[in-house]
Amino acid sequence: MRRLVLVLCVLAAPALAVQPDEVLDDPALEERARDISAGLRCLVCRNESIDESNAELARDLRLLVRERLVAGDSNEEAVDYIVDRYGEYVLLNPTAEGANLLLWLAGPLMLGAGLVMGGLYLRRRSKEAEPATDRLSADEEARLREILRE
């Protein structure tokens, strides 16, 4: 039973794809590299960070990040270097400026527009008068009574 619990705990742990030969000797640099790679998207796996992905390109990006940190780059400089090479798509959490601002605002703006349009429709609909119903003529009323008696 203990072995089963141990196996389940190991399987439930986050699967990090960083290979032992990638790990830097300096723990502070390695921690910075892990922080950076957790925010970079694997271009092969889409919504996985390069820290979690087993793809070759993710490995290359992890090595590139570590190479930049060893060269003396700050975290921002290393991320900017990767973004310059691969585009802003490589960021798991893109910036909210420039053209991306339109994408960040599009959802809330469309929701607001839909709510306003729905409110206006309901308001206009509630103000409309009930459709006038024509009264039955005397002959029609007599015929209806006759039908109902049968």
From TrEMBL:
<feature type="signal peptide">
    <location>
        <begin position="1"/>
        <end position="17"/>
    </location>
</feature>
<comment type="function">
    <text>Possible subunit of a heme lyase.</text>
</comment>
<feature type="transmembrane region" description="Helical">
    <location>
        <begin position="101"/>
        <end position="122"/>
    </location>
</feature>
<dbReference type="InterPro" id="IPR038297">
    <property type="entry name" value="CcmH/CycL/NrfF/Ccl2_sf"/>
</dbReference>
<keyword id="KW-0408">Iron</keyword>
<keyword id="KW-0479">Metal-binding</keyword>
<keyword id="KW-1133">Transmembrane helix</keyword>
<protein>
    <recommendedName>
        <fullName>Cytochrome c-type biogenesis protein</fullName>
    </recommendedName>
</protein>
<dbReference type="InterPro" id="IPR005616">
    <property type="entry name" value="CcmH/CycL/Ccl2/NrfF_N"/>
</dbReference>
<keyword id="KW-0472">Membrane</keyword>
<feature type="domain" description="CcmH/CycL/Ccl2/NrfF N-terminal">
    <location>
        <begin position="6"/>
        <end position="148"/>
    </location>
</feature>
<comment type="similarity">
    <text>Belongs to the CcmH/CycL/Ccl2/NrfF family.</text>
</comment>
<keyword id="KW-0812">Transmembrane</keyword>
<dbReference type="Pfam" id="PF03918">
    <property type="entry name" value="CcmH"/>
</dbReference>
<keyword id="KW-0732">Signal</keyword>
<keyword id="KW-0349">Heme</keyword>
<dbReference type="InterPro" id="IPR051263">
    <property type="entry name" value="C-type_cytochrome_biogenesis"/>
</dbReference>
<keyword id="KW-0201">Cytochrome c-type biogenesis</keyword>
